[in-house]
Write a structure and sequence with these properties.
12% strand; alpha+beta; TPR-like_helical_dom_sf; 8 strands; Tetratricopeptide repeat protein; two-stranded parallel sheet; 54% helix
């Protein structure tokens, strides 16, 4: 058995069952640099051309431990501590390499790293959430191409782990939409739909992301799926009403920065709006009240001119 002094392969044992209380998910993954960065920290780095691989594990919210990866993609040498800013500037995540090469080599060589949970060589929900958090930091640092590749690799993971479901990817999509990374949000929502086709809120969130992109047909298709499951979901109904309004008003489209709404999309929005009205008892009651008020006002308006005739 090859054993390292930093971590356990699968986290079995009392040492690794201790719960964390620091409020964030630790990251442990392979990263790469495009040039010989920090070469003095290792003597024989695994690399192809100018790309070199490193095992990176998160120490706390702002610092990371970095060690070189050898020919088998296994970590070796002394661990150096780098700040988050250096990680975002020089390092690119290699999720596929971590899953397909390092974890495979660790099992083949019975390799273990002894230490706390931060160093467990495995893919689980905590590690995936931690990696996703790093992806958000790339976005905020305007490293968009790196973040785009990072998110796609996270979604392509094939390892099964607890919590790998529609709720996880819906949460990722929401967080990406909040930072205006709509392309990534769409990918996460669609990944969530692999696990379920009966989540009305997930279809609405997908429609919302498409709306933000101005992808009208995709937005409407997602809304149709949402309405098929829940024709009275208030936020979905509001989005349909907004699409109808945008279709009728160039000024409103300019205000919201949206492209013209195709006629076919506008017609489908009207159909959905009518269907929502039919199923919404509150909206029907409001419409009846407005109709009664309108009739009363009409009668009053008809009566008032008569007062002048009789001298009132």
């Amino acid at each position: 058995m090859r054993q390292d002094s930093y971590v356990s392969l699968d986290g079995r044992g009392q040492l690794y069952t201790k719960q964390r209380h620091d409020g964030f998910d630790y990251v442990c993954c392979i990263f790469s640099t495009q040039r010989t960065h920090l070469l003095s920290r290792a003597t024989t780095l695994r690399g192809q051309g100018q790309k070199h691989y490193w095992l990176v594990r998160q120490m706390d919210e702002v610092s990371f431990g970095v060690r070189g990866a050898d020919g088998d993609f296994l970590p070796f040498g002394t661990e150096a501590i780098i700040p988050l800013s250096e990680l975002l500037t020089y390092y690119s995540p290699e999720v596929a390499v971590f899953e397909e090469r390092l974890l495979t080599a660790a099992k083949e060589h019975d390799f273990q790293m002894i230490g706390d949970r931060r160093s467990i060589l495995r893919i689980d929900q905590a590690n995936v959430r931690g990696l996703f958090g790093i992806a958000l930091k790339y976005i905020k640092a305007r490293k968009l191409s790196r973040a785009r590749v990072f998110i796609r690799e996270l979604l392509r993971l094939t390892t099964e782990y607890a919590g790998r479901d529609q709720f996880l990817f819906n949460d990722f999509g929401i967080r990406l939409r909040k930072v205006r990374h709509y392309e990534g949000a769409v990918l996460c929502y669609r990944r969530g739909l692999v696990f379920t086709q009966v989540d009305d809120h997930l279809y609405y969130n997908l429609a919302r992301a498409y709306y933000e992109q101005g992808q009208w047909w995709d937005c409407m298709n997602a809304l149709v799926s949402c309405f098929d499951l829940n024709p009275v979901l208030p936020v979905a109904r509001d989005l349909v009403v907004l699409v109808m309004a945008l279709a009728d008003s160039a000024r409103l489209r300019m205000r919201y920065g949206k492209p013209p709404v195709p006629d076919g999309v506008a017609r489908r929005a009207e159909v959905l709006g009518e269907a929502a009205f039919i199923h919404d008892e509150t909206a029907q009651e409001t419409a009846r009240e407005l109709s009664v008020r309108k009739e009363d006002k009409a009668k009053e308006d008809l009566w008032l001119p008569g007062r002048d005739i009789v001298g009132m």
